[in-house]
Write a structure and sequence with these properties.
This protein is mostly helical. Helix content is 49%, strand content 10%. The chain is built from 3 helices and 3 strands, in the order H-E-E-H-E-H.
Length: 77
């Protein structure tokens, strides 16, 4: 089975939105390959290092909020 890494990245970015703290920081307790890809796309700061969290860029914040709604929210009635 071949994984769709694009969809995985979207889900991880959306889930980072749930763990936001101190403004735009989120715990980096997700798949390292996905975090590296999100960094390469400009959505988060470099995940490599001693810090236990990453910072979402302005674009990353907007996209994570959009993806959280698209992937995980139910429509209002």
């Amino acid at each position: 089975m071949k994984l769709n890494t694009g969809r995985i990245d979207e889900a991880v970015l959306a889930l980072l939105q749930l763990g936001l703290h101190d403004g735009a920081r989120a715990w980096k307790s997700h798949d390292w390959d996905a975090l590296d890809r999100l960094h390469a796309k400009g959505y988060i700061t470099d995940p490599v290092g001693k810090a236990k969290s990453v910072t979402l860029t302005e674009e990353g914040l907007r996209e994570s909020e959009r993806l959280l709604e698209v992937l995980f929210c139910e429509p209002d009635e």
